[in-house]
Amino acid sequence: GGMPASADEPALHSALAGNADMYKHRGVHLVCIDKVGMGGTSLNTSFLIRRDWPTLVNAVADRLGVNKYGVFGVSNGGPYVMAMLTAEREEDRERCLAAAMVVGVSDVSASGYFSVFHPSGCFEGLFNSLPLRVSGAVTWLMISASSWVLLGYPDMYGKHAPHKINSPEARGVLRTLLRDAARNHGRGAALDCQQGLSPLYARPSVDREGGELSADTAYRNIKVPVALWYGKQDSTVPLVTADWLSMRLEKSTVHYHDGTHMLFFDYADQIVDDLIAKMSDAG
């Protein structure tokens, strides 16, 4: 469901980028929080990303004694970034200095991600609109099968992964990541994908009086700097959705690079430096 999925993922970022100190030597404290129902958390089917994620993040920040921070999300980590930037409470929004979206999903309906012109996004939207007990069971089977194929007897990861991300450390972190995602019989991962990829959880197409804003209005109200990084060869999150998002974010900078949905691993240093610069300028 995108990164981060669990609190183990700071190690994943470093191991797969081939640089164990990519955050530390920059003076950055990377905090990854378990998505609800994954890692060490219990399943809460009433949890709503747009409504509840900012409260959860700020509770963690308070516990750590952090007042201001930046947020960062990859792929289906995008809805979590947007939840922070569009938080209902002004005091929650004001704590976020800057953000980075890397091949990130935004509002699947408004952006055109869920569309017949994007077949994989259309399939994801339909599948993730299934009841959670169904999508959760299928997700658990897929994760379990993937873990065996990648790291078990077939060892497809060992045979085909690029050398720089084929270290014992990277394999160990990937194994932990898959284990975290399979918790609660896959229903946590399914809940994450459901809210990020199903049109049933998209914002309304028009503003509701006294209620929720449309994606167009909510995103145009974002005033913090946002770095958008997308791959020109990414078939998962097409550039048209990135174009839609950039046109609505007042202070966005867009980086289009040759690359696929794995863009982060090729540009990790530049992405992190870009976010740090935006946080420094804003703070």
What does this structure look like?
- With 283 residues, the protein is an alpha/beta fold.
- Helix content is 46%, strand content 9%.
- It has helices at residues 9-17, 49-64, 78-85, 90-93, 119-127, 132-151, 156-160, 168-181, 187-197, 215-220, 239-246, 263-282, and strands at 69-74, 96-102, 226-231, 252-257.
- Helix 11 (239-246) links the parallel strand 3 (226-231) and strand 4.
What is the CA-atom radius of gyration, in angstroms?
18 Å
Q: Strand order within the widest sheet?
A: 1-2-3-4
Count every beta strand, where a strand is a DSSP E run of 2 or more residues.
4
Low-confidence stretches are none
Keywords, please?
283 residues, alpha/beta, four-stranded parallel β-sheet, 12 helices
